[in-house]
Design brief:
Layout (H helix, E strand, L loop, with lengths): L6 E3 L4 H9 L4 E7 L2 E6 L4 H10 L5 E9 L7 E9 L4 E9 L5 E3 L9 H11 L2 E3 L39
Parallel strand pairs: 3-6, 7-8
Antiparallel strand pairs: 1-2, 2-3, 4-5, 5-6
Length: about 170
């Protein structure tokens, strides 16, 4: 398979090698794009991989947690963890795919308490459940919001429900 321009195999990267050595059953591969390492994992050992990255490789800062909707794909959703080591100035991106039938993944708040609001945002906008999260509730939308998840690709552009009841003066 040919990789897109600028993307190359990252399996030989030292961080990818260490993750593969420790978690060979969950390691799916790694890519480098413009020098940024992305490690693709199965969801089963995500929490253990994160503990390893923090304790062994000094990744002490969860920069961002986001999600991608690959509508129509077998594993529709992808959770992306961007991690940074302040002392070593290393960065890594972990990517985990989820099927539409199993939208739950382990929370990493026990590893980095700073992941709390990041996971809540992904839950609120995409509907991904983070198992073991201490307070998984909406963070951006009202608690009673029941119209779906606005960042999913199948969410209507004009919204649903209560938006249609607004009266605008001409």
């Amino acid at each position: 398979m040919r990789m897109p321009v600028g993307m190359e195999n990252g399996d030989a990267h030292p961080i990818a090698e260490k993750i593969r050595e420790q978690f060979s059953s969950s390691y799916l591969g790694a890519t480098l794009f413009r020098g940024d390492l992305s490690v693709h994992l199965k969801k089963d050992d995500l929490l253990e991989v994160c503990k390893f990255l923090k304790s062994t490789l000094d990744f002490d800062y969860p920069v961002h947690i986001s999600s991608v909707d690959h509508l129509g794909g077998k594993e529709r959703f992808e959770i992306v963890y961007e991690l940074f080591s302040i002392r070593k100035h290393h960065r890594v991106r972990l990517k985990v795919r989820l099927s539409e039938n199993d939208l739950s993944i382990a929370s990493v708040t026990s590893v980095w308490c700073g992941a709390d609001f990041l996971e809540r945002e992904v839950y609120d906008m995409m509907g991904i459940q983070f198992e073991g999260h201490p307070n998984l509730c909406r963070i951006l939308l009202p608690d009673e919001y029941d119209e779906g998840f606005p960042l999913r690709k199948d969410f209507p552009l004009e919204g649903r429900g209560w938006r249609d009841t607004f009266e605008f003066e001409a």
